[in-house]
Specification:
It is built from 13 helices and seven strands. By secondary structure, the chain is an alpha/beta fold. It folds into two domains: about 230 residues, Rossmann fold (3-Layer(aba) Sandwich), CATH 3.40.50.150; about 40 residues. Strands 3-2-1-4-5-7-6 form a seven-stranded mixed β-sheet, sandwiched between helices. Strand 4, helix 7 and strand 5 form a beta-alpha-beta unit. Helix 3 packs across helix 5, helix 5 packs parallel to helix 6 and helix 7 crosses helix 10. The chain is globular.
């Protein structure tokens, strides 16, 4: 099956009901837009854009899929160009065109292109936004170099929710764990070094690498509240484990801090390496 056929198939399978909802793959395209527009992920994305380039007016949305982000940006007043190589009316360019008509958006245009061949003039866009698409690049360095080329000077490349692996074994685990890879075989991931090297080679300055548990952008569908509860549960388990071993002295802050140090725990009690294909986001600037 291809990607379009995979999404049609899982919509009809109750096993994937939650995935369809959480990944915004519902047949009702407008519902997907409305839910994404209210999400913590999109709100945080807007915060990042306003923080790093508040004067931005134009956004190039690469790998736009069914158009949820393109439409939401357009509804916020940005001039949006959606780039999506899939032409389907389910998860591709025709879905975006349908939504453009539904919302009567004259500030949204759609191009059926791969990022590696986007073909726009250099220095054209304030923001290049890539959601869950960079890890699908068939040529990562060319993908990112094209993103950088079409950015205006001091423009921002914002890539979000890209799968990260640390070695070949980690990649095998991720691919085996992915719920849809077995159907269409199109999943992929790169190491943080590969992503960052490609950005630097393209002339971008990396402002921030956002690791999995550092932002709701990455760990969605967990909410911030969900994440805090998970972290608290892990902390309580560690404290109980230590107390069983050494007694009440484990309650002393200095003792527990030494225990954390021994376990290699720094900022968070949650270990992203326990999540297959954990997602990272990157903020970089054209210099």
């Amino acid at each position: 099956m291809n990607w379009h056929e995979t999404i049609i198939s899982i919509r009809e399978n109750s096993e994937f009901k939650d995935l369809v909802r959480l990944a915004y793959f519902d047949e009702n395209l407008k519902l997907n837009v409305e839910r994404f527009g209210k999400s913590e992920e999109f709100k945080e994305t807007l915060n990042i854009i306003k923080q790093h380039l508040p004067i931005a007016k134009s956004i190039l949305d690469i790998g736009a899929g069914n158009g949820i982000s393109s439409v939401c940006f357009a509804l916020k007043g940005y001039n949006v160009t959606a780039v999506e190589p899939d032409s389907s009316n389910t998860v591709g360019a025709n879905a975006i065109r349908q939504l453009k008509q539904v919302y009567n958006l004259d500030n949204l245009v759609v191009h059926e292109k791969y990022a590696e061949e986007i073909g726009f003039e250099a220095n054209s866009f304030d923001i290049v936004y890539v959601r869950q698409a960079m890890h699908h690049a068939y040529e990562l360095k060319k993908f990112i170099s094209e993103c950088a080329r079409v950015l205006k000077p001091n423009g921002i490349l914002l890539t979000v929710r890209d799968h990260v692996i640390f070695d070949a074994k980690d990649k095998e685990w991720f691919l085996a764990s992915h719920p849809l890879h077995k159907f269409y075989g199109g999943e992929n991931a790169f190491t943080p070094k590969e992503y960052k090297d490609a950005m630097l080679e393209a002339g971008l300055r990396i402002i921030k690498e956002i690791k999995y548990y550092e932002s709701v952008i990455n760990y969605f569908p967990l909410t911030k509240e969900d994440k805090e509860k998970q972290e608290k549960a892990v902390e309580l388990n560690l404290r109980s484990s230590l107390k069983r071993r050494i007694g009440i002295i484990a309650n002393l802050p200095i003792i527990f801090n030494l225990y954390k140090q021994k376990l290699g725990i720094k900022d968070s009690f949650l270990n992203e390496k326990m999540v297959p294909g954990r997602m990272y986001s990157y903020i970089s600037k054209k210099v």
